[in-house]
């Protein structure tokens, strides 16, 4: 085994109860656990974002509207992850993952978790720069990048799970 | 027959639903759909909360109620309230006053959802005894409007008309806090329009043209301002005419866009665009539309943003509707 095993172990570590899609009847449950973990991380980021917004409003910083737009983007992503609106009719209803597919799905999961954490860190950094216009501008751009990045991975992961 | 507790076909605008039967049997089937939460209450107090899924009510998933009824297995009394966790849209509209006491009307849309069902039930549903969706929605709208009025009234009319994006975002942040206290999450707010009286619109015009809110506010009416400024062609009459031309040249106070004014009396004008701190009010090639406050190309005959016709004096200065004299050069307007 090797690389993907270590990714699974990592996932099992951060997501209590995760089975690595190995049991057919628990595949949906595993999927729900992964999405729940990611959505929870994004929710933390959103809460941090709201704090940033409050501080920004207090000092009338010029990035207020931009920060609010990022907050909305973040909220939309959180809701998309949490409720998986696409609905799964493909892979998740199939029998069992083939080795190659399983590897891909788990890679997507790990990437999503990693990016969600990065988003959270980026928001924290942003919140620390409210009084510093130059750094704040950079933080806004960085966060925007991360959100776009995340959205991309999420999109791929969702269409994979839907069997496309 | 097994008792089934389920919110069947909730309407699009329904935020809560109370299960009409208050007698619950152990073993009853509770069906909670995605985006819903079921809250068990008794005597206005919340006991157990169950999320999405199909639950058979047992002593295990309703431990607090089971304890309350003294561990008996006979049917018990409880109010079951379903709360929708979906996003809702509401419209608002109202009137308030700016900090100069200028009357303003506003209207728009807001979006919200329940973030903390327990807090929401405690504060709104149980707290206000509103067990009907229509009542709850009405309460939320009134609460929103009250906050909107309060927060908007902290701003100057110039901020409202010239920095509306900034103001509405700041107000939204404050309203988000208000909503959080009710267990609600205010997702977004859009101010679609603000309006004021003709008299105040003219006053706004003079404030933006001269940059001197203090002077304009000292006059009783906007007409009086126009008359004062237009009395003689360029001659110094009173402080107004002496001060005016200088004010048009010099940079005004450092830009502090849309900051709620904390002091008493008449606030500083603060009419600059936030993008160019410390720059003169009207840079070469740029003018300000007196109707929407946006920067427009010099010499424009119509505002590209709000479409208003821009009236001008023979020398090309912008003048407000109905003005008899140009506020800048004093020229008579035909
Ligand atoms: Zn305009
Ligand atoms: Zn003129």
UniProtKB/TrEMBL annotation, chain A:
This chain's protein is named: Uncharacterized protein
Keywords on this record?
A: Coiled coil
Q: Which organism is it from?
A: Thermococcus barossii
Q: Which domain of life is it from?
A: Archaea
Please give the coiled-coil regions recorded for this protein: 67-118
From TrEMBL, chain B:
Cite the record's Low complexity compositional bias ranges: 268-279
Q: Where is this region: Disordered?
A: 253-279
Which Pfam families did the record assign?
Band_7_1, DZR
**According to the lineage, what is the superkingdom?**
Archaea
Identify the residues that the record assigns to the DZANK-type domain, covering every copy: 289-330
Give start and end of each SPFH domain: 16-204
The record's listing under SUPFAM superfamilies reads: Band 7/SPFH domain
Question: What's this protein's name?
Answer: SPFH domain-containing protein
Q: Which organism is it from?
A: Thermococcus barossii
Recite the lineage of the species: Archaea, Methanobacteriati, Methanobacteriota, Thermococci, Thermococcales
């Amino acid at each position: 085994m090797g690389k993907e095993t270590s990714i699974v172990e990592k996932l099992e570590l951060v997501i209590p109860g995760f089975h690595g899609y190995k049991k057919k009847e628990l595949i949906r449950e595993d999927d729900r656990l992964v999405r729940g973990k990611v959505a929870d991380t994004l929710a933390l980021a959103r809460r941090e974002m709201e704090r940033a917004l409050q501080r920004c409003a207090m000092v009338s910083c010029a990035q207020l509207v931009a920060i609010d737009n990022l907050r909305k983007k973040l909220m939309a992503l959180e809701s998309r992850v949490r409720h998986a609106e696409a609905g799964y009719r493909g892979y998740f209803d199939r029998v069992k993952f083939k080795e190659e597919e399983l590897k891909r799905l788990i890679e997507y999961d790990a990437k999503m978790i990693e990016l969600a954490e990065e988003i959270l860190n980026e928001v924290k950094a942003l919140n620390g720069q409210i009084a510093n216009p130059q750094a704040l501008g950079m933080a806004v751009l960085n966060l925007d990048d991360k959100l776009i990045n995340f959205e991309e991975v999420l999109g791929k992961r969702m269409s994979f799970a839907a069997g496309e | 027959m097994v008792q089934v507790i389920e919110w069947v076909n909730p309407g699009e605008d329904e935020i809560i639903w109370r299960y009409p039967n208050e007698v619950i049997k152990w073993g009853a089937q509770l069906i909670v759909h995605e985006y819903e939460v079921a809250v068990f209450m008794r005597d206005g107090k919340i006991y157990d909360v169950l999320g999405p899924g199909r639950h058979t009510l047992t002593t295990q998933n309703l431990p607090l109620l089971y304890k309350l009824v003294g561990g008996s297995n006979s049917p018990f009394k409880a109010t079951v309230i379903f709360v929708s966790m979906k996003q809702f849209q509401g419209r608002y509209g109202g009137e308030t006053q700016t900090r100069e006491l200028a009357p303003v009307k506003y209207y728009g849309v807001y979006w919200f959802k329940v973030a903390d069902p327990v807090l929401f039930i405690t504060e709104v549903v149980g707290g206000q005894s509103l067990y009907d969706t229509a009542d709850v929605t009405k309460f939320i709208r009134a609460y929103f409007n009250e906050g909107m009025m309060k927060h908007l009234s902290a701003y100057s009319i110039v901020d409202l008309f010239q920095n509306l994006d900034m103001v509405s975002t700041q107000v939204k942040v404050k309203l988000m806090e208000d909503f959080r206290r009710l267990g609600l999450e205010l997702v977004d707010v859009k101010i679609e329009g603000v309006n004021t009286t003709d008299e105040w619109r003219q006053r706004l015009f003079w404030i933006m043209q001269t940059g001197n809110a203090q002077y304009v506010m000292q006059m009783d009416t906007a007409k009086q301002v126009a008359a004062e400024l237009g009395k003689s062609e360029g001659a110094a009459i009173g402080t107004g005419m002496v001060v005016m031309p200088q004010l048009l040249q010099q940079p005004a106070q450092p830009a502090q866009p849309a900051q709620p004014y904390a002091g008493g009396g008449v606030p500083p004008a603060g009419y600059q665009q936030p993008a160019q701190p410390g720059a003169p009010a009207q840079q070469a090639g740029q003018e300000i539309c007196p109707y929407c406050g946006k920067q427009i190309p010099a010499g424009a005959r119509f505002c590209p943003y709000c479409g208003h016709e821009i009236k001008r004096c023979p020398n090309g200065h912008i003048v407000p509707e109905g003005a008899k004299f140009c506020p800048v050069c004093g020229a008579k307007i035909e």
